Amino acid sequence: GQQVMQIPQYQHVQEGEDFTTYCNSSTTLSNIQWYKQRPGGHPVFLIQLVKSGEVKKQKRLTFQFGEAKKNSSLHITATQTTDVGTYFCAGREGGGADGLTFGKGTHLIIQP
Amino acid sequence: DTEVTQTPKHLVMGMTNKKSLKCEQHMGHRAMYWYKQKAKKPPELMFVYSYEKLSINESVPSRFSPECPNSSLLNLHLHALQPEDSALYLCASSQESSSAPFSYNSPLHFGNGTRLTVT
Lengths: 112, 119
Fold this sequence. Notes:
Chain A is mainly β.
């Protein structure tokens, strides 16, 4: 079955440093979605990427979808304490009939 | 604040109890989901309803019984649970296209979850 690998599992950064999390699928994805979950909260949808090679930006966040639609990344520039949380990628195999498969998530810890 | 409402927020139950988790959305979404999430783990899909019909059951034990009374409501009935079933149970909905079968490509809107403890 489809697997979505996400690294790193944990990332400690100093406030102001950049952060990147990577997602890799064993199969071609029809789209990839990114979610953020604050400690004690629920996952909140951030963005969806659909096209090969797509790049989208949301303020300090940059999302990329690979040319082969098997990998994706989320990059945060100049992290702030409000960025703390777990970032999940979630993808669905192209042509499949199942729901989204979530990556294991990257837990971002920011030291002031 | 979330547009998907889950009750109760917390639930403690014994292994012989019967309880129900409730979820409600008024966004007109036609797909609704139950996910289970353990601490520091990703959400795991349990059930998917599309147009009030069960479309995906991810081999969930029968002690979990979903129900979709109408397009806005989703319940999860619990009976004879085990301590390892303790987790955060998340409801979600998504706006799928009007054509069937659903592609399940739309973003998920999650509720705040019910934190369940089985003693």
